[in-house]
Predict the structure.
Amino acid sequence: MFRQASRLLARTTTSRGSRAFSSDVPATPTQDSNFIDSWTKVVPNLDPPKTPSSFMTPRPATPTSIPSKLAVNFVLPYASELSGKEVDMVIVPATTGQMGVLPGHVPTIAELKPGILSVHEGNDVTKYFLSSGFALIHANSIADIIAVEAVPVDRLDPALVQKGLADFTQKLSSASTDLEKAEAQIGVDVHSAMNSAITG
Amino acid sequence: MAMAALRREGRRFAPLISPRPITAVRSSPIAPTYEDEGPIGVRYISTQVVRNRMKSVKNIQKITKAMKMVAASKLRAVQTKTENSRGLWQPFTALLGDLPSVDVKKSVVVTISSDKGLCGGINSTAVKISKGIRKLNSGPEKETKYVVLGEKAKAQLIRDSKKDIELIITELQKNPLNYTQVSVLADEILKNVEFDALRIVFNKFQSVVSFLPTVSTVLSPEIVEREAESGGKLGDLDNYEIEGGETKGEILQNLVEFQFSCVMFNAVLENACSEQGARMSAMDSSSRNAGDMLDRLTLTYNRTRQASITTELIEIISGASALEG
């Protein structure tokens, strides 16, 4: 009898939670039941593999009234710069120009070009220079900004930026193949954006 | 029979008479002797064989302990990177959802495994799950192809699914893993392989003793549009405005490629972490087994040694008593 009880307890604990790291969100039982059912039918001997949705906290639903703050998740491949920080406004460098995002913004998928991301919280403004990425703004006033590389603007070295700009402009003029031209153009774009970030 | 006994005693006397063999007799329990039960009749029990085994088992124990330490230090290095990269795929799943049971014609299974062995069962579970997914997606007009990362999965999959493997990539961890390398890899895969859905199979690192096989699904832009139109999980996608780019299709293409490289980066890091963790526990159990084996061998050795000493004593004493009597 006690063995049964311990077995039941063990089953609930393993299915519910997981002894994970603090950075990992707890496994929630929001797995795709369709997938699990079809798996158990076809491959009954193996446990079904986990899917990413079981490792994510589900996002909150769209509120009826516009919330006062925007929650920003700013992620990079090697770090999560901001995760769930409540701010007043962010300005993202979309390919169509600088775009301001306030709470209650229309859901948007924006492709980003190299430029400055500024995060406004009360009177503080933090500026980051992004290389490029995507900004996803959801209906529940959560903004996800995913960039490949980002540095705070005060870490950019003006001398190196000028030198880089000169190098790439020279490469662009002497480029022969399309690939070289494209690479040089990218270099010029990024460096001139960095230049305007430092000066502007 | 009496003649045989006399002959035996004769042979036994010889060592007692000459000085050289006396040292041999005294040191015979300790010095290497070999089991020799021939017509001579003198039996020396061998401890050499047991001693050789003990030496090799002790060496194995030292090696596996060292490998465990190395794996522990490598794990510490990769673990921080992995934890930091965990936020990377979450925005994509929040937007595009997670549809492992989506019905597509061409699915490509990307199996991530390690290059080196001695890491427990993680590579076999990854391969088994890949084969299971392939079985799940089998049907009329449906096909599944493999992209293999890592030597271990390559060895297992090449045996029965050689014609279904599109790309094989090995020596991933020669240089420390970074996003640039993985994005180049993702680019190669996207260029060379046609897909409707990419299913990435890897071992997610949950803790040093627990690794969960996971499958992440990345859909191609056409399938995303199809699912968005048909409603269901991706039904809200049409509500999203598009900034930049001319058409929604273009943006979706870029988004899907970016998603793939981000998910691959996280998957490769998680698998590397799981590999080191599994190696740690495998080497730990191996050194513990070697320790147990060494204990048992030591007991056998002592028993053998004592038995040979006893035999020597009996022979000497019976020889001495035969001499007197």
